[in-house]
Amino acid sequence: GAVVSQHPSRVICKSGTSVKIECRSLDFQATTMFWYRQFPKKSLMLMATSNEGSKATYEQGVEKDKFLINHASLTLSTLTVTSAHPEDSSFYICSARKTTEGVGELFFGEGSRLTVL
Amino acid sequence: RKEVEQDPGPFNVPEGATVAFNCTYSNSASQSFFWYRQDCRKEPKLLMSVYSSGNEDGRFTAQLNRASQYISLLIRDSKLSDSATYLCVVNRASGTYKYIFGTGTRLKVLA
Question: What distances in angstroms separate CA A15 from CA A22, A68, B3, B35, one per listed residue?
Fold first, then answer.
């Protein structure tokens, strides 16, 4: 397997503040990472694809200026939720792509539970 | 029609039972296939990649049927700890890192 670490695991913030979530691949380099959002008892919703050294690719309906993604190195991608509102409260999960024997497997971070008051 | 479809379940089975899940995909150019396990309020964890020849890992067996465009997961001798949601994930053709997730199948193994 592989290890992907996500931090913080839980964050509570006031409405209007910004929150940064980090996703690190600890034992491999990842040129591609993904950010998801998941609501209770629902499937993962892809928000954006993070590419090292270039701009992220956002899915339809996801606001680029609201969810800032930076992939500055081969082991770190960050998601910043800007001017957070209560409706942004959710479980955010990242994944990193690792190629094993020619197959690109995804390894997930532990997730970050965001609560906006 | 969704690109990747799974029966949401729940599948309620007694301990020791054998249970099988199927997952169908609509894009014939799909290249890589995976089964993930997700526990409640946790991140998905890779259970196994699915190879063309099929593969087995202990009590778990995965099969790929390209002609009918489905993958399967068989769990033998179910344990209580197997209770989770099993996600089918399909990667589209090479050149694009697009992973499509099924909605997951819930499994409950009962004592």
Answer: 20, 17, 36, 38
The candidate with the shortest Cα–Cα distance to A105, out of A50, A22, A34, A42, is: A34
| Token pair belonging to B59 | 């009590």
Question: Measured between beta carbons, which residues in chain A are less than 8 angstroms from residue B41?
Answer: 91
- Whether residue B106 contacts residue B12, with contact meaning beta carbons closer than 8 Å, is answered with no
Contact A43 B44 (CB under 8 A): no
CA A51 to chain centre: 12
Distance CA A67, CA A21 (A): 11
Put simply, whether B44 touches A (Cβ < 8 Å) is yes
Q: Measured between CB atoms, does B41 come within 8 Å of chain A?
A: yes
Q: What is the pLDDT of residues B24-43, one digit of tens each?
A: 999 888 889 999 999 998 99
